[in-house]
Amino acid sequence: KWSIRRRATARPSSAPHERTDHFIFRLRVTMFACTTTSLTASAFAPTMPKTTAARRAPAHARTTPVRTHARLDSGVGCFGSKAGMTQMFTDDGLCVPVTVIGIREGNFVTMVKTEATDGYNAVQVGYDVVREDKLTKPEAGHCKKAGTPPMRHLEEFRLGSAPEHEVGARLVPTEMFKAGDKVDVRGATIGKGFQGAVKRYGFSRGLMTHGSKSHRQHGSIGAGTNPGRIYPGKRMHGHMGNDMTTVKGLTVMRVEDDCIIVKGNVPGKKGSLCKVTGTKIVGKSDGGASKAKKSQKVVVA
Length: 301
Fold this sequence. Notes:
By secondary structure, this protein is α+β, with helices and mostly antiparallel strands. The chain has 9 helices and 11 strands. The longest helix has 29 residues, at about 15-45.
C-alpha cells in the first residue's frame, strides 16, 4: 500500500529535453553567481601586503587602531581605605547608614603629565606609605625622584586640561571635598570564591522533594549536535566577587583630614583600597568635552 500510494502521488517525470534545458539554465546561473562573487570580493577585499615579512605580521600589527578619545576623570581625587559602616543622624533626625573611608599616610603627587610632553594630561598620585624594602628598586627610585616617601599604590587621574599640581605635593581631603558633594567610589568587591549559579546569578532552585535530584543545579546549558558547543558568556558556576566596580553619586556627609564619611555603602571589605573622585557631570566636570563630542558632525568627503 505504501508503494502504490507513493506512485500515485509522485510527480510525472519531465521529458529528457526539458531536464537538459533546466540543467543548462542552472549551470549558467551558478557560473554567473560565481563570477559576480569573485568580482565583488576582489573589489572590496583589503589589499594584502606584498612583502613576506609584512604578510607574516599579525593583523593587529598591520592595522593600528586610532584611539579618538579616552575616559577622563572629573578631576584629581584621592585614595583611602574602607574602615567600616556606621550610622549618622541628619539635622531632620533621620538615621542614615554611612561608610567611613579612612585616609592613611599618602596621597602624594608623584608625576604630572601634560599633553605637550606625554600626549595627554594626567596627575599620578601615590598612596599607602610602606618601607622601601617592600617595593622594587624602580618603584622606590620613582618615589625618591619625586621627593615623596615610598608608596605601595600608584594611579593616574586623566584630565581634560593641563594640571596645575606640583610634584611632591600632598592632597588634603578637606581641600578637595565638602559636605553635600557627590562622589564616585571605586574599589574591588568582596571575594566569594567558587560559587554555584544559584548564589552567583540568582537562579531558581529545583524541587527539594518529589523525587527530584536537581536541587541547586542550573539546568540545561545548550543544545547537542547543533551548535555542539557552549556559547561564551554562559552563566554557570565559577569564581564570584573580587571585581572592580564603581558606586556613583554618593553624598558626602562629613570630611576630615583623616577620613571621608559618605552616605551608603562602597565596594570592598574592611581595609580595602577605595578611589574617591567627584561625580562626573556632563558638560561641567569635563569642561564641556562630552557636549562638544555629541555636537560634532561627521562630514564624509
